[in-house]
């Protein structure tokens, strides 16, 4: 069964020289940075970035990361990171597809899960803060789960 997508966002970037290895392809660890760039752009568009999260008393550590490398990215290549949010009430779960911006060829498939954690005592929350949920529901393109 396909996961429900609550909202989508897309970010484009260009592979810098310092991200490639001796084989002239992006070193595998840099893909995590590309996910973070896309996630930060989405959170900015949402109006609930890491600064706002901290102001609401929460840190949001990544607790799960999945990466599947399909084709290598290369220096100077323009990459589009398409992101889909599949959970926001219990955690922040995002799926990513990295594609060549010109051809659309798939380069990498990824996913991250972040949880809200109270700053004052380190307690992990089983439900995300209401302020976060409200920001998500206000996001342009938000698609609520249909009720049966």
TrEMBL record:
- Read off the PANTHER family from this record: 4-HYDROXYBENZOYL-COA THIOESTERASE FAMILY MEMBER (PTHR31793), NOVEL THIOESTERASE SUPERFAMILY DOMAIN AND SAPOSIN A-TYPE DOMAIN CONTAINING PROTEIN (0610012H03RIK) (PTHR31793:SF27)
Superkingdom field: Bacteria
Keywords, A to Z?
Answer: Hydrolase
Instruction: Describe the family membership recorded for this protein in Swiss-Prot or TrEMBL.
Output: Belongs to the 4-hydroxybenzoyl-CoA thioesterase family.
Starting at the broadest rank, the lineage of the source organism is:
Bacteria, Pseudomonadati, Pseudomonadota, Betaproteobacteria, Neisseriales
Q: What are the GO MF terms of this UniProt record?
A: fatty acyl-CoA hydrolase activity
In Swiss-Prot or TrEMBL terms, this protein is called 4-hydroxybenzoyl-CoA thioesterase
Q: Is Hydrolase among the key words of this record?
A: yes
Q: Which Gene3D superfamilies match?
A: Hotdog Thioesterase
| Organism this protein belongs to | Eikenella longinqua
């Amino acid at each position: 069964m396909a996961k429900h997508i609550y909202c989508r966002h897309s970010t484009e970037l260009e592979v810098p020289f310092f991200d490639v290895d001796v084989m002239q392809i992006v070193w595998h660890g840099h893909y995590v940075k590309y996910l973070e760039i896309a996630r930060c752009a989405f959170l900015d568009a949402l109006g609930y970035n890491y600064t706002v999260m901290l102001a609401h008393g929460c840190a949001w550590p990544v607790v799960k990361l999945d990466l599947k490398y399909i084709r290598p990215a290369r220096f100077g290549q323009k990459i589009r990171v398409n992101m889909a949010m599949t959970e926001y009430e219990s955690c922040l779960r995002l799926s990513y597809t990295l594609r060549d911006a010109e051809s659309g060829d798939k380069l990498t498939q990824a996913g991250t899960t972040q949880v809200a954690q109270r700053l004052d005592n380190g307690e992990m929350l089983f439900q995300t803060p209401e302020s976060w949920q409200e920001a998500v529901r206000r996001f342009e393109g938000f698609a609520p789960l249909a009720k049966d």
